[in-house]
UniProtKB/TrEMBL annotation:
<keyword id="KW-1133">Transmembrane helix</keyword>
<protein>
    <submittedName>
        <fullName>GPI biosynthesis protein Pig-F</fullName>
    </submittedName>
</protein>
<keyword id="KW-0812">Transmembrane</keyword>
<comment type="pathway">
    <text>Glycolipid biosynthesis; glycosylphosphatidylinositol-anchor biosynthesis.</text>
</comment>
<dbReference type="GO" id="GO:0006506">
    <property type="term" value="P:GPI anchor biosynthetic process"/>
</dbReference>
<dbReference type="GO" id="GO:0005789">
    <property type="term" value="C:endoplasmic reticulum membrane"/>
</dbReference>
<feature type="transmembrane region" description="Helical">
    <location>
        <begin position="167"/>
        <end position="188"/>
    </location>
</feature>
<feature type="transmembrane region" description="Helical">
    <location>
        <begin position="194"/>
        <end position="212"/>
    </location>
</feature>
<feature type="transmembrane region" description="Helical">
    <location>
        <begin position="94"/>
        <end position="120"/>
    </location>
</feature>
<keyword id="KW-0472">Membrane</keyword>
<keyword id="KW-0256">Endoplasmic reticulum</keyword>
<feature type="transmembrane region" description="Helical">
    <location>
        <begin position="126"/>
        <end position="146"/>
    </location>
</feature>
<dbReference type="Pfam" id="PF06699">
    <property type="entry name" value="PIG-F"/>
</dbReference>
<dbReference type="InterPro" id="IPR009580">
    <property type="entry name" value="GPI_biosynthesis_protein_Pig-F"/>
</dbReference>
<keyword id="KW-0337">GPI-anchor biosynthesis</keyword>
Length: 226
């Protein structure tokens, strides 16, 4: 007579932990949105200074989000001995640091060049433009580098817009599209404080990232119609 299959019963503590992990991406989105709303008046008043002093906080927030909410490509889950758990956490922290470092160097340089090619001032407002590129890189590039590392096949799909939609890819696309749309109000006039460079670009990047990230979580597994 076959023995009935038994399934391990989940304890209330395990259920509570699982529920918390499921809500952490939304907590990250809410914190990011709340912080940007709070600093927006300061951003309008002094863009360069505001982007500079908020940069470490954004880097830390993205690093925590990566470690807590994202699973790296080909990263095997650790379980069993405490030693394996510590090694797994250490690997995630190091990978998150490297992703942030890549975003603030290579990613920022690439986005700065793109901003100039798309009409950003090349000889003036250099610091605000660099900081704008750095904020956008931390939003769009760092999570993708952390999750997919530098896997060539995956990055070809990402850069070609053919990657499977999930919150990192959708957030990155949203940040870049939002920054592009954010440039629209700038030529309309210079009589408004919020139209100064690069307030609308940064605002578009943050809004696009939050919207794209949320849509990627809601509709995973699809592909962009490109």
């Amino acid at each position: 007579m076959p023995t009935p299959t038994t399934h391990p019963r989940r304890t209330p503590a395990a259920t509570s932990t699982s529920a918390l992990r499921a809500t952490e991406p939304h907590i990250h989105t809410a914190i990011l949105a709340s912080i940007f709303i709070t600093i927006f008046p300061s951003l309008v008043y002094d863009p360069a200074s505001t982007l500079l002093w908020t940069l470490p906080g954004l880097a830390l927030l993205q690093a925590i989000y990566q470690v807590r909410c994202l699973r790296m490509l080909n990263l095997t889950s650790t379980s069993g001995t405490g030693k394996k758990e510590v090694m797994g956490v250490t690997s995630k922290i190091i990978s998150s640091f490297l992703a942030i470092l890549f975003a603030t160097t290579i990613g920022t340089t690439t986005l700065y060049v793109l901003l100039v090619l798309f009409g950003a001032p090349a000889t003036t407002h250099i610091l605000p433009t660099v900081l704008c590129a750095m904020h956008t890189a931390l939003l769009a590039v760092a999570p993708l580098v952390y999750k997919y590392r530098l896997e060539g096949r995956v990055w070809r799909e990402i850069l070609g817009g053919r990657a499977v939609v999930e919150e990192c890819f959708a957030g990155g696309v949203g940040a870049l599209v939002g920054a592009w749309i954010g440039a629209v109000p700038i030529p309309l006039g210079v009589d408004r404080e919020w139209q100064k460079w690069p307030v609308t670009i940064v605002t578009g990047a943050y809004i696009g990232y939050i919207v794209g990230k949320s849509l990627g979580w809601m509709y995973p597994g699809k592909r962009l119609p490109l």
